[in-house]
Amino acid sequence: MSGCLDNVQCHLPECCRIGDKRNAIASVLAGIFFFHGWWIIIDAAVLYPDNSQMKHAYHVVGIFSTVAFFMINAVSSGQIRGDNYNSGCLGQTGARIWLFIGFMLAFGSLIGSCWILFGGYVTNNFEAVYPGVAIFLQNFFIFIASMIFKFGRTEDLWE
After folding, report:
1. Is the dihedral of CA 71, 74, 76, 80 positive or negative?
2. pLDDT digits (tens, 9 = 90+) for 135-152
3. How does pLDDT run across 87-108, given as a tens digit for each residue?
4. CA atoms within 13 A of residue 113's CA, in its CB half-sphere
5. Which candidate in 49, 55, 84, 141 could, as Cys together with 37 as Cys, close a disulfide (CB 3.0–4.6 Å)?
């Protein structure tokens, strides 16, 4: 799963080659996106503390997105392929189901945040649309962080 772009070759100068730093770079980028997602929603919650401006129930979407982040990245590519995982609860099938549920939560959170943005703020002509934008950006950044952390790393360096 993480090696879909491994065979693509770009002729970069020696100073710009990633090499053994791929996992570190992917982890740092994912952390930056994850941090900014939560920072934006904390900013919106501080600016609009009243429940009439930003409903407190809208934070649930970000929590589900964070749970999806951990679910997606708790399963390695080797477990999905069945290379090194044949025991445990349901074995390879259980790992695939876990990953599928994680992706469903991630996409569902992203779609839910779009619904909150447009259904709760844009179409109702709210005077402040920023809470809806913040909820969407939080979930979008956490989704991007999930994808970078899952597919940006390689497991070859773990061995």
Report:
1. negative
2. 999 999 999 999 999 988
3. 666 778 888 899 999 999 999 9
4. 28
5. 141
What pLDDT, in 10s, does the model give residues 20-47?
788 889 999 999 999 999 999 999 999 9
Q: By CB neighbour count within 10 A (0-12 exposed, 13-18 middle, 19+ buried), where does 17 fall?
A: exposed
- Please give the Cα distance from 36 to 21 (Å, whole number): 23
Measuring CA to CA, how many Å separate 84 from each of 151, 155, 159?
18, 12, 12
Among 61, 33, 47, smallest CA distance to 117 is for 61
Report which residue type is found at 8: V
Token pair listed for 116? 């909150």
| Helix-helix angle 22-47:59-73, to 10 degrees | 170
Provide the residue ranges of all domains of the chain, joining segments of one domain with +.
Answer: 57-153
Half-sphere exposure of 5 toward its Cβ, with a 13 Å CA cutoff?
Answer: 6
Token code pair at residue 113: 């945040």
Model pTM? 0.84
